[in-house]
Amino acid sequence: MFDTINGIPLHPLVVHAVVVLLPLATLGTLAIAVKRDWRLKYGPLVVAAAALATVLCPVATSTGESLEEMVGDPGYDHAELGEMLVWFALALLVLSLALVWLERRRAASGDPDEHKTLINVIAAAAVVAALASSVQVYLVGDSGAKSAWGDAASNSATGD
Q: For the chain, how far is it from start to end, CA to CA, in angstroms?
């Protein structure tokens, strides 16, 4: 896999895609978990965002390892947290896909109560997964920013 584009490390570029797509998928999952009418209309878009974010997580990890070889170790926390992010994204993807799929089955059957309990359980699990993935994205990003910038921002703010 290539490590740079025009001399720019690929890792920050891929990471920014994940940092945009995964929170969007999170917000979308929260929306379709709460608003049943939106599952059919916006569900496929939410699933697509979650799928793309999930696919890009291992790419971000791989490019991060390449960047580590160029500039040094970012710290244990960032690398470990980044490697775990794919599992949070995968849970979000599976649950949002299950919500959309079950809602399509219910709509096709014409029975508004079909799979009602199962859908409610999956919707609740999707909310938990969405919140957990948001926290994980924050933790990975915060540790990455600290490893990249260190005390540079606080030193410039205090005039040191």
A: 40
Query: How many C-beta atoms surround the C-beta of residue 120 within 10 A?
Result: 11
CB count in 10 Å sphere of residue 157: 8
Q: d(Cα 68, Cα 79) in Å, to the nearest integer?
A: 10
Q: Are 91 and 127 in contact (CB under 8 A)?
A: no
| pTM of the predicted protein model | 0.89
Contact 15, 78 (CB under 8 A): no
C-alpha to C-alpha distance for 81 and 145, rounded to whole angstroms: 13
Rounded Cα distance between 32 and 51, Å, is: 16
**Residue 149: which pLDDT band, with cuts at 50, 70 and 90?**
confident
Distances in Å between the Cα of 36 and the Cα atoms of 42, 102, 107 are 10, 11, 11
Please state which of the ranges 28-32, 42-46, 66-70, 93-97 shows the lowest mean pLDDT. Answer: 66-70
Sequence letter at residue 154: S
Q: Give strand ranges (E) for 2-151.
A: 4-5, 8-9
